[in-house]
């Protein structure tokens, strides 16, 4: 293909990529990272101090021959402007030539990637017979997790805890459409104590007072903590045994650890490659993460391949290339 593809969130969602395909792509990419055929940089973040934060990821590989860069902005004032609270873009280049292959809106990819990473951990750490799932935070991440976890577990009930009425109603409607009974939790402890699986996706604010405690989870429960553990009390995290994070190498370089490193049993690569020890079924388990470049790489590569096969997106190109334009 000459030029590059431009793909919106709606076009990406319309590609029909299934949860099973997402998990397979993530597993293959993580295995490639372990082999050294995909290289990643630690996720970076900038907090301007007014509630916004900007995050970027970078990964480059030889198979597929792609470089993927994602930049995402979280702006709490966007909803009042009629805009999504999270907006961003994914740049895909040929890793040999540097030529642009695709420009993608980042919303769909980020939701699917994040839920996929949680699901990879849950498939190895959660009760396969789990029936009740609790969501603390009911926005876009909760919706993507609902879809993925309904595909993996025999869920019958969803317990919701969130601040925004619109998001609560939307998530409740989606859960009911999946055949789940819906309960609105009265308090954080009630939400956690009721669930076999907990997903926390609270909008990050590093000055917030933690209000969730892992000791409230029932024995055998699993928590997917997508918000870097910020709303969770540090003194309760030892109740999660085992406790996994997304990428130990990335965490070593981060000045703000998500959890006490002494509590960490391993990372997602250890779970995926089978080197992690088995968990005791009665133990609470957790997966805490801030996001990892390999996930964005995997889903961007998968989406580009599917879009090219389906003829989706808009083909564009630069007005001129080196050697073609005026001197």
Count of domains: 2
Structural class: alpha/beta
What percent of the residues sit in helical stretches (DSSP H or I)? Answer: 25-40%
| CATH-defined architecture of the largest domain | 3-Layer(aba) Sandwich
Protein name: Ornithine cyclodeaminase
List the helices and strands and how they pair.
Blueprint: E1 4-7, H1 9-13, H2 19-35, E2 38-46, E3 53-61, E4 66-74, E5 86-94, E6 100-105, H3 107-125, E7 132-136, H4 140-152, E8 157-161, H5 165-177, E9 181-184, H6 188-193, E10 197-200, E11 222-225, E12 243-245, H7 248-252, E13 266-267, H8 268-273, E14 285-288, H9 293-310, E15 314-316
Parallel strand pairs: 1-6, 7-8, 7-10, 8-9, 10-11, 11-14, 12-13, 12-14
Antiparallel strand pairs: 1-15, 2-3, 3-4, 4-5, 5-6
Summarize the structure in short.
The chain has 327 residues and is α/β, with parallel strands linked by helices.
Structure description:
The chain has 327 residues and is an alpha/beta fold. It folds into 2 domains: 4-109 and 293-316, ornithine cyclodeaminase, domain 1 (2-Layer Sandwich); 127-288, Rossmann fold. Helices cover 31% and strands 24% of the residues. The protein is built from 9 helices and 15 strands. It has helices at residues 9-13, 19-35, 107-125, 140-152, 165-177, 188-193, 248-252, 268-273, 293-310, and strands spanning 4-7, 38-46, 53-61, 66-74, 86-94, 100-105, 132-136, 157-161, 181-184, 197-200, 222-225, 243-245, 266-267, 285-288, 314-316. The strands form 2 sheets. An 8-stranded parallel β-sheet has the order 9-8-7-10-11-14-12-13. A 7-stranded mixed β-sheet has the order 2-3-4-5-6-1-15. A hairpin with a 5-residue loop joins β5 and β6. α2 (19-35) packs across α9 (293-310), α3 (107-125) packs across α4 (140-152) and α3 packs across α9 (293-310). The longest helix is centred in the middle third of the chain and has 19 residues, at 107-125. The chain is globular and about 60 Å long. This is Ornithine cyclodeaminase. One of its GO terms (cellular component) is cytoplasm.
